[in-house]
Design brief:
Among the domains are: about 80 residues, Arc Repressor Mutant, subunit A (Orthogonal Bundle); about 100 residues, 3-Layer(aba) Sandwich (D-Maltodextrin-Binding Protein, domain 2), CATH 3.40.190.10. The chain is about 40% helix and about 20% strand. It has eleven helices and twelve strands. The strands form four sheets. Strands 4-3-5-12-6 form a five-stranded mixed beta sheet, with helices on both faces. The chain has a three-stranded antiparallel beta sheet with strand order 10-7-11. A two-stranded antiparallel sheet has the order 1-2. Helix 1 packs across helix 3, helix 1 packs across helix 4 and helix 5 crosses helix 11. The protein is elongated and about 65 Å long. The N and C termini lie far apart (about 50 Å). GO terms for molecular function: DNA binding; DNA-binding transcription factor activity.
Length: about 300
């Protein structure tokens, strides 16, 4: 097994075809196919299923690719340390629910380690995909919340995927609303006062279960519901429609703008925000640094 072979299979997995991977790697298709066959034979694993329509990644292939990504990442770190800083592109990926502190920590990480070449990914995505990304080791870290309602289901899913949850902080529920919202001058807001306004939430795609909701009180019946995919759309609708969403209360004006404020919600519930890691994964220097920046933003 060589690092080159590992790079080959990861590139095939990312492109989805031997043809595209070969072009990207600047080698012939037969050479790439033979290299993958040799690796599968040596490691006694079938990474890809071959079909008439192309290739699919097998279940054991997903596990293998997770470890392969880690090996290449650690190799790059070694080269960076011992070969005059020429370890090639630094790679790092984090998957997260829509939290401004996660974005800010990511910015700090790039400013410290970006240099001339890097390949970093920040995936603000759906809850199930966060768990899946860390399980497959596509992301080293995943950020989400647990509470009394979703904890049993999500912890069961984490256990099944060999993941570990690390608490960062406990938050009381707040609502994000426009500074010009009719309730903006309130020091605390009740659910009853919010009934007349549109409720905004992040849709969860195929896994649109209450347990995967990014917002607490996901089972509460509301008259007006709007589901969106991204942060910018949600904030535009908060302002344009006097909508609201339920959140942790951690807000960043530089990122979210001056027009959005957080007001405490009158409720006794709590949300435990933390990060996921794979139990068999190795924490990289980039991962450690990202977490250090993350914790800096949460000190207050």
């Amino acid at each position: 097994m060589t690092l080159q072979q590992l790079k080959y299979v990861i590139t095939v997995a990312e492109t989805g075809t031997i043809t595209e991977a070969a072009k990207k790697l600047y080698i012939s298709q037969p050479s790439l196919t033979n290299a993958i066959h040799d690796l599968e034979k040596e490691m006694n694993v079938e990474i890809f299923h071959r079909t008439n329509k192309g290739i699919d990644i097998s279940k054991e292939g997903e596990d293998f690719l997770g470890y392969a990504r880690q090996v290449l990442e650690q190799a790059a770190i070694l080269e960076d340390k011992y070969k005059n800083g020429s370890g090639g592109k630094k790679q790092f990926c984090v998957s997260t629910q829509h939290y401004s502190f996660a974005v800010n920590a990511f910015v700090d990480l790039i400013q410290q380690y970006g240099q001339e070449e890097y390949d970093f990914s920040l995936r603000e995505t759906q809850t199930y995909e966060i768990i899946e990304d860390v399980a497959k080791m596509k992301s080293e870290i995943g950020i989400l919340f647990l509470n009394e309602f979703n904890e049993k289901v999500l912890r069961k899913l984490m256990k099944a995927n060999d993941l570990e949850f690390h608490p960062l902080f406990t938050a009381r529920p707040h609502v994000f609303i426009s500074r010009r919202h009719p309730l903006a001058d309130h020091t605390i807001i009740t659910n009853e006062e919010l009934e007349a306004y549109p409720y905004l939430s992040f849709e969860q795609g195929e896994h649109n279960s209450f347990y995967f909701s990014e917002e607490i009180f996901s089972t509460t019946e509301r008259k007006k519901n709007i589901r969106v995919r991204d942060r910018a759309t949600l904030f535009n609708l908060l302002i344009g429609l006097n909508g609201y969403t339920v959140c942790s209360g951690v807000i960043d004006r530089n990122l979210n703008g001056e027009d959005i404020i957080a007001v405490p919600l009158q409720d006794e519930s709590e949300m435990q925000i933390g990060y996921l890691t794979h139990r068999r994964g190795m924490r990289s220097r980039l991962g450690e640094t990202y977490l250090a920046f993350l914790k800096e933003y949460l000190k207050d």
